[in-house]
Amino acid sequence: MTTISAHDKQHFCAARFMDDILMFVRKAAPWDHERFLADFTRSECYHPPLTLVDAKDDTFLETTFSIRGGEIRHWLKNDNELGKPTKVWRYQHWASCCSFEQRRATLSACLKKVHGMSSDSEVLVQSAIQKLDEFRRLAYPRSVLRGACTYMAGCTACYAWIRVRHVVDTW
């Protein structure tokens, strides 16, 4: 950052977590954003053997985001899209050999993560439905999923969880 001019610093923001970098760049005249990105790509922000590699445009670590009208919206990344085949298995099947308390705690922890990583209630509803669908595919009973939504509504005071519960009721 010490080698970047004050003028350039006005046109981008970046965050680094360990070896991952998230950068937003303004593409506005007269600033030459293409030169800046080329310089950054050539930079020495990584020491060998690490190298700068482009990632998906909408994902940083465990967060997916979108930019609409100058607003950044974000939610928990989920590779298991609603209605598509499961890509990643993360949780135990309902019939697995573990206690009800453990299954309920896992479900609650996942939903708390969904809640904490959602920028607004609209993306929270979408993200929660996707996450609950993962548990539904693992044969979690609708009553347990519904109860988890009620629990989340109570502990977060967020009405969006009641909207999610209404979707679960249709399953």
Chain-wise SSE layout:
Layout: H1 6-9, E1 12-17, E2 20-25, H2 33-42, E3 59-60, E4 63-68, E5 71-76, H3 100-116, H4 121-137, H5 142-156, H6 160-169
Helix pairs in contact: 3-4, 3-5, 4-6, 5-6
Structural account:
With 171 residues, the protein is an alpha+beta fold. The chain contains 6 helices and 5 strands; from the N terminus they run αββαβββαααα. A 3-stranded antiparallel beta sheet has the order 3-4-5. Strands 1-2 form a two-stranded antiparallel ribbon. α3 (100-116) runs antiparallel to α4, α3 (100-116) crosses α5 (142-156) and α5 runs antiparallel to α6 (160-169).
| Distance between the first and last residues' Cα | 52 Å
Q: Which structural class best describes the helix and strand composition?
A: alpha+beta
Mean pLDDT: 85
- Cα gyration radius (Å): 20 Å
Count the domains.
Answer: 2
Strand proportion: 15-25%
- The number of helical runs is 6
Please mark out the parts with pLDDT under 50 across 5 or more consecutive residues, or reply none. Answer: none
Described by strand count, sense and barrel closure, the largest sheet is:
3 strands, antiparallel
**What topology, given as strand order, has the largest sheet?**
3-4-5
Share of helix among residues?
A: 40-55%
How many strand segments?
Answer: 5
Tertiary shape: elongated
Task: Please provide the ordered H/E string of secondary-structure elements.
Answer: HEEHEEEHHHH
